[in-house]
Each structure stands twice: as structure tokens, then as C-alpha cells.
Amino acid sequence: TPPWSRACNLFFTPGVYHLDDTIRITNPDTIVLGVGYPTLMPDTGKTAMEVADVDGVRIKGVLFDAGTQNSPSLLTVGEEGASADHSQNPTIMQDVFFRLGGTVAGKATNSLIVNSKNAVMDHIWAWRADHGNEGSFGWDVNPGDTGVLVNGDDVTATGLFVEHYNKYQVLWNGNNG
User: Fold this and answer.
1) Where do the domains of the chain lie, and which CATH numbers do they carry?
2) pTM confidence score
3) What angle do CA 177, 41, 95 make, to 5 degrees?
4) What is d(CA 43, CA 61) in angstroms, rounded to the nearest whole number?
5) Chain centroid to CA 67
6) Where are the beta strands (DSSP E) in 67-167?
7) 96-132 pLDDT, tens per residue?
8) C-alpha to C-alpha distance for 2 and 158, rounded to whole angstroms
């Protein structure tokens, strides 16, 4: 288990962080803070970050950049079927960006999956590259099915920008969003 999986808070400085395993956020009220838009890139086809269905996680100022091996998602908040009520202390994602292609021919089935109830997304940009470095973009070069997949109920999104995905920009399955 990587040491950051046991941390209470994570602070990322500018740079590209190549990940060979998933960062797992399991503690409630964990803060994941990036300054200078650090880039988290899964190199082995795993999800870059998974957040357990816990209260009060904050993720701010981070760029998730798909690696060349397909990942099921870049960020997943809550496990599939999550049902805990987080209305008093929701997970909040602010200024979080997702990129498939543009720098490398990145691949991810989904950029962001939100399974937790009551999650808040503020200023989220999910981009499947339509331009960039030669060989890093094209309909079949940097595949991504869905930009943002919302399965949780009572999820709020403000400033949600999603572009160029192969199947769905946003697929909202949750209720009362």
C-alpha cells in the first residue's frame, strides 16, 4: 500500500506525478490540495484516485491526466451502490480538471464517477483532447466513453464543463441533482 493511502491529508506541489497504483482516500474529512495544478497520471491502467463513501473529503486544484493504458476512471468518489447520507458534510471537488490526450495518447473509460450522495462539484473541466501534441489525439487515439458519470443522488454541480467524449459528455443517473 502506498504511504499516501494512509495519510490524513495530501498536498501536491506543481509537477507530474506518475502513479503505478491507485491513491485511496478512506478517511473522512481528508483534504487533497494541489497548488500550481499538479498532474496525477495513472501509468498502469488503474484509477488514479478512489474516494471511499465517507464524509467531508475535499479535493481542490488537481489535474487528472490519463495515461496510455486505459483506466476505468481517473477519479471515483464513493463505491458503486453507495447510499450513505452526506448532506451535513458532503465530499466537495473544486477546480478539478481531467484530460485525455493532448500531451500523450491518454485513455480512460470515464474521467469522473460520482457514486456518493450529496457530493458537490464546483468548476470541473473534463476534456477529451481535440488538439495537442501530434499523435496524442483523434477519435480512436485517446478514447473516453464518458466525461462525468453521476450515480449518486442529490449531487450538485456548478461550473461543469465537459467536451469531446466518444459516447456521453455527462451521464446523470442519480436523482435530485
Assistant:
1) 3-82+91-172 (2.160.20.10)
2) 0.95
3) 40
4) 21
5) 13
6) 71-77, 92-100, 108-114, 120-128, 146-150, 156-163
7) 999 999 999 999 999 999 999 999 999 999 999 999 9
8) 33
